[in-house]
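Notes from hallway chat w/ T.B., transcribed later so I don't forget. T.B. wanted the structure written out for a chain they're using in a teaching module, and asked if we could keep both sequence and structure tokens in one place. Agreed to drop them here.
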Amino acid sequence: MFKPRRRKVRIVATLGPASRSPDMIRALFEAGADVFRINMSHGTQADRAEIIGNIRALEEEVGRPTTILVDLQGPKLRVGTFADGPVELKKGQLFTFDRDERPGNAERVHLPHAEVFSALSVGARLLIDDGKVSVEAIEVHPDRIVTKVLVAGKISNHKGVNVPDVVIPLAALTDKDRRDLAFALDAGADWIALSFVQRPEDVAETRKLVAGRAGVLAKIEKPSAIDRLDEILDLADAVMVARGDLGVELPVAEVPPLQKQIVAAARAKGKTVVVATQMLESMIQNPVPTRAEVSDVANAIYDGADAVMLSAESAAGSYPIEAVAMMDEIAAQVEGDPTYQARVHFSETRPEATSADAISAAAGQAAATLAAKALCCFTTSGSTAHRASRERPNAPILVLTPSLETARRLGIVWGLHAVRTKDVTSFEEMVEKSKRMALRTKLASAGDRVIIMAGYPFGTPGSTNVLHISRLQGSELKD
């Protein structure tokens, strides 16, 4: 039986050239990685199949359900090519984007996206190369967009284009994404991250294709998604605060308050929320982070995010293991802060009028009052565990489920320690198994109290209606 991590926030580590081998995946796991992200923007299907196989082999070895997040690329808007290499745009000059496929020059370039021409209006901005160059449309025609340069800089072949001021009539799923999605589901991915979400319909389409075989995580990276955040949260199982693209399409000073708003909104609805991008960016090249980066990670944890994510730090950096270990250390320090519980409850999460929420809220209060060492819940679908996590209790939550798929999917959720085990059929069996597993996982010891949640009749999804308080004797391990 594996020993659960004492930390409640989860760590997502992106795998890549620096970290795809079995030895590196194991090292990242031992350093603290709970979830492994596979970015479908890079590599081949064979590469990804090998990585997933390596993760599942580790899971079998350590006996701990391990979570795989597959991140779809989404549509990418890019300029064409230039005849004589990069061009330098000067502030105030005119520059044209057109549908002419010939190589560009200092006055024009091909933009191979008809949807932009139909959606753009005068006054809208185009941001080139992650916002390093900014232009404003002064004329919009079916075959060309004449712009005025607002922020000068260099542009070159195939640089990315962001259009923050309008909703582009593009589906979030490209043909490539559909192929990647089919591959990921067949390979047993636990979560699918959806890029380029602009509206709730994007999430609905993906949910239909996924058909319950994985959790659907919507990346919030466009202003239009923020405008419809509540609707997106209603459809998605989780959201990611994708601060990189948000910081391109919005003034960077707006991103920190938006991050807090998104985290609070997700928590209020009981949806998983991940904070991502540039969290320990300097550790791509340095063995220690900046103090500002440490504070950034800490603030996300204080806000109650379910997970914090490493991207290039673990995928392509020089210090992937150190980056995961540093995030683990930051989390331990934050969660050990005497003021942590007060801060993590700054965002109010009012229970809904359901028995599951009533039981979860009561369990959290009972755990605090009695200084219980663990909450234990039985679940098939994972819904009971999600509601218990939403309360952000003092004690860790031991989740007992007969479903390996559910156990894996819960690995990204705050405070949960999922164990696959046979379901129970009676109240007495429920109590004894809870006590036995709390001892085996070392979440609690003889003499400690545990709070037990379950649904009766047993094995009926969504029927959480039992709350039981029990004291461990230590003899349960002999059963």
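Follow-up for T.B.: The first strand starts at residue 10 and ends at 15. Might be a good example for the class.
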